[in-house]
Amino acid sequence: MKHSTAFITTPIYYVNAVPHIGHLYSSVIADTLKRYYALKGADAYLCTGTDEHGLKIQQAAAKNNAPPIEFCNQVSKSFKELSDAADISYTSFIRTTEPRHAKAVAALWTELEKKGYIYKGKHEGWYAVSDEAFYASNQVQEAVDEKTGEKIMVSTESGQRVEWTEEENYKFKLSAFEEPLLKWIDDNPTAIVPSNRKNEVTQWIKQGLADLSISRLRSRLDWGIPVPNDPGHTIYVWLDALTNYLTVNGYPWITTENNKGEGTQNSKITNAWPADVHVVGKDIVRFHAIYWPAFLMAAQLPLPKQILAHAHWTMGKQKMSKSRGNVADPFQVMNTYGVDPVRYYLVRDGGFADDGDYSEENIIKRYKDLAGQLGNLLNRCTAPSLNPNATIPATPKNSDARDETLRTKLAELPGIFDESFESREFGKGISAVFDMLAEANKNFQDNKPWDLVKDPSQKERLDQVIYHAIESCRVAGILLQPVLPSKMNTLLTRLGVPSEKRSLLDAYPQQEQSETPLGENREPVLFPRLKK
Ligand code: ME8
């Protein structure tokens, strides 16, 4: 299936602390998806950025004795550096402190108000500062503070401490959207993936949706966007944050009767809304799968096509989190193992339905797959000793029964890969590539090209063997580009594959080809041995 455009998003990250491997994971999944759609010929867009308003940030800045904006500048920069370091090919990096964003949020607010979904009311409830969320009485429970032994109340969902809070603020008529949301989920079976998350969301909605408080008193929280025409109130940070997905599209659009309109001048992404995939962690599903579609429905804007929620990385089976302090530094890990091997590890072993346990031992194991199955095969079939003319032999005229299994796997692989990625089973798609590579290595080994090369009468067979090994590397190289963009670029360049012959379609068996030269540069080794 050809997609003409694909718009993928990452969550925008809180700047209350520096990035860890969990943030890198969300970004790598989103980037892999974006590159996958580009591989299929789509104009693919990716946006990422930082979420900079709210009490949590205000408090973190105070703790660091910095004015909030300076504190935000500093931490936001480290998230941007992480994206750049990890080869995240974002089209737009948004910061919620940018003027273009304040304009979009105010416009959405005004729209919701105009359509009658905002009213002023007294709000009371259990408020969790860490989650920036109010919870109803059936969403909290008693617990004991680990440090002080004091009895406290916590959210059953997030485990965070909550306090009873009363204030006058603005509310959004979320309760009006129970039926429409259930219908949306019903009509769009892949709107929330995977299914355990979808079931959870359906349950939450069926338990009943209370109207949502969407402002805070400015006296209690001034680090945020003011409510239009009522500056004594600050817009709730989640309404602010979610709107980022519209801001990067140039919202507010200048609309006419039947036209969604052009984006504002500064936007690099125009008319890409609705998002194809919002990649999020399972901790923020409620916000993306309930609040966000409800806001959009209220504003009569199109809904995102999919919320893809991944599970968490644990370390030693405990959730990795800034507050717990058991986090892996993504910069350090990429320095040690290289960017692409870390991306590969995260995509292949990360959990969707269930959490995955992070360990460097497993990164090393995956690195060895790459070096042993792919790097090694590439080296062998392009080595001057076996391939002295440095060419890709012509497509074999006669097929040999000894290559049958490999030929079948090669022919089936692109379809399996595509299907797996469409259904967001990334590990399955990648495993299929390595299953093919295992067969390719076996074929190479069994046919002993190092003997064939010594016997001129075996030239045709040698060519067939080299051809199949190179073809296996070429197909693997094309398919793995979304996951290992830089390494696969090196591989394909080494094979002399021109940049316009690297799309998903090019991974399917090709028409007969005559002999072509390999690329010139055969150094350095694709996956060098890791230093102890
Ligand atoms: O929630 N494993 O920002 P945040 C996997 N600003 N992923 C993890 C993770 C872990 N251990 N820890 C964090 C926010 N993440 C809001 C989002 S969007 C409009 C606003 C990932 O900095 C995961 O995707 O707390 C999670 O949802 C995201 O980081 C939250 O990052």
Automatic annotation (TrEMBL):
Residues 508-532 are annotated as: Disordered. The keyword Aminoacyl-tRNA synthetase applies. The keyword Disulfide bond does not apply. Residues 7-381 form the Methionyl/Leucyl tRNA synthetase domain. Its EC number is 6.1.1.10. Gene3D superfamilies: 2.170.220.10, HUPs, Isoleucyl-tRNA Synthetase, Domain 1. It catalyses: tRNA(Met) + L-methionine + ATP = L-methionyl-tRNA(Met) + AMP + diphosphate. CDD domains: Anticodon_Ia_Met, MetRS_core. SUPFAM superfamilies: Anticodon-binding domain of a subclass of class I aminoacyl-tRNA synthetases, Nucleotidylyl transferase. GO terms for molecular function: ATP binding; methionine-tRNA ligase activity. Transmembrane segments: none annotated. InterPro entries: Anticodon_Met, Met-tRNA_synth, Met-tRNA_synth_2, Methionyl/Leucyl_tRNA_Synth, MetRS_core, Rossmann-like_a/b/a_fold, tRNAsynth_Ia_anticodon-bd. GO terms for biological process: methionyl-tRNA aminoacylation. Pfam families: tRNA-synt_1g (PF09334). Keywords: Aminoacyl-tRNA synthetase, ATP-binding, Ligase, Nucleotide-binding, Protein biosynthesis. Belongs to the class-I aminoacyl-tRNA synthetase family. This is Probable methionine--tRNA ligase, mitochondrial. It comes from Phascolomyces articulosus.
